[in-house]
Amino acid sequence: MSNIRFKALQDVLSRTIPEVKPPSSKISDYFGANVFDKKKMKEYLSTEAYQGIINSIEKGEPIPRDLAEQIAAAMKSWALGKGATHYTHWFQPLTGTTAEKHDAFFEPTADGGAIERFSGDALAQQEPDASSFPSGGIRNTFEARGYTAWDPSSPAFLMARTLCIPTVFVSYTGEALDYKVPLLKALSVLDKAAVDVCHYFDKGIEKVNASLGIEQEYFLVDIALFNARPDLYLTGRTLFGHISAKNQQLEDHYFGSIPGRVYAYMQDMEAEALLLGIPLKTRHNEVAPSQFECAPIYEEINLAIDHNQLLMDVMDRVARRHNFKVLLHEKPYAGINGSGKHNNWSLITNTGKNLLSPGKTPKNNLMFLTFFVNTIKAVYEHADLLRASISSVNNDHRLGANEAPPAIISIFLGSQLNDVLDEIETSRISKKIKEDNLLWQGIPKIPQILPDNTDRNRTSPFAFTGNKFELRAVGSSANSASPMTVLNLIVADQLKKFKYDVDKLIKKGEKKDLALLMVIKRYIKESKNIRFEGNGYSDAWEKEAEARGLANIKTTPKALDAMLSEKTDILFAETGIFTPREAHARHEILLDAFYKKLQIEARVIGELVLNVIIPAAIAYQSKLIENVKGLKDLGLSSDTYAAQLDIITKISEHVNFIKTNVEQMVNERKKANVIEDLRQRAIDYDEKVKSFFQPIRYHVDKLEQLVDDTLWPLPKFRELLFIK
Ligand code: ADP
Ligand code: MG
To answer: Which domains does the chain have, with CATH numbers?
Structure first.
């Protein structure tokens, strides 16, 4: 029974490091080689067609049919030239992963031959039989028609021998069934709102887009060890395991030298990513043993999110070549750090200006303050919705667990900017100051380079880091589109309100700059409670946050309520992002995924305990009993086998506890399963079923410590975390 663990350990010890050769020693030689990007479009399209598609991309206009035909032909000849045989619409359904359905280019002809075909229609639209993707009841299975539609703003790419076309996924009745549709809508609302506000400062600005740089944390584990842990391969995390004697307490892993096998993997994975145009730049060890991070250079947000989804896929595929498994789960191992995905976000104009970068002149600083303070106000107003957008059963292990940002949304600015805002708040802006010169004196100086990294607060969920905000609470396996849709949406909504407030003052006769400053000042005051510079992990902060009226919702089913609140309803209606039907459907999908994942974990616990752990414990116990009997037969006194008797009794105690608690857990599951109301079912799973996990685990881990190592069947934490 214990064979599989030792077999796995043997496999690991016999590994050799595969030789990895990047396509060229210069990244610029191969970066984006597998992407049908602008450069290739230019090469493969007529000048007219090229201009047509660029216009469509930039203005978001639909692409005429004849143009789609030309682009399809160009894509096909590029892809065939690179050995492609199939194409697929690549999309992001609400399962959280990406989906594809491959079709061959090949088509038979009437004369018995065959040609390679790819039409404009096939590029523009497909109807995957999508009845088994989550739709929250929008799409009944009998009207199983959803369709995918080409998103030309994200370039097509080649994966293995398949041409992948990024698409949106909508129901036949037009409702969004994916992550991309709402994101694109939010970006368009943001563009308009931000450009309108930019025009107070610069009439030349025509477009504002969000930029995003995603830091991706992950764990690596040898595939043989992974396969010997059914909890890992069924749920993505270990449900049992006594903490390793050595773990992260020496803090010797972070930024340490990268082990050889891992280094080879990273190089290989990076080369694949770079070929796909994912601009990976950074790699390093993370805090926990076997935990690592990679990060690309930031990009336009829609592309950055596509690239992160693609990257997670590439990481997984390349890992197989190296006999590794990538763990993207937020909390694969209890007792050591989990993984997140920091979302570095800012706003950039078509003229190349970062709106969250403090400027050189006071006027520029007023512009910076406008976007800076509106972002703070937006997060203050809709903190609960932002919290909801990062909720998942996995992330519940991190948020508020004193290793990741707390479940309380707050904003860290750094002392300098905090002081600047305080100064504005308390300054007296006299309405009599009508002279520009004097007004500018009312704006404190903002240093252009803010010393962020050293003093910036790692315990904050939303921190300003020099020229961008960093949402640090996103889970490592999440699709960033969910929180980024919310962030862009609430900032857009806030900017609209800002413009309304400023215009009102201007209409009353106030000078423009003064009006701007007056509204900024008011917003600073109104949103003050969300700013926090202290230790987000402390109990004192929980108390203070409560006194400040900030929400602290620790679990997903309740955090998700914010998706359907009255305030959110108004936000969604005013911005047109989700219809009530879509919002309800999404809420339902998330609750459904939440309780089902707990259901799976509960089942895996039950099975492993009964089929693997208890038998191992009993096998050892029987050996001890034999031993005691033998000693007795020799006529030795009971002192000689006191230790054995003690272990025998302890094993029985643990086994009994585990067995009874698993039965009770199964009972609670049965009760929860028949609860009609989905929200209540999810809450019961969380509060009544999940509450058994920890006590059961405690006793299993005690057994792990008692039982003869050679009989223990599951790879131990020390092996999972340290043997490579
Ligand atoms: P950290 O100290 O958090 O590791 P880095 O400076 O290495 O920060 O950047 C982390 C990520 O933030 C990278 O992906 C980087 O490209 C991205 N980033 C930098 N500037 C911006 C910006 N203006 N907008 C969005 N992302 C940015
Ligand atoms: Mg960071």
So the answer is: 31-178 (3.10.20.70), 187-578 (3.30.590.10), 592-722 (1.20.120.1560)
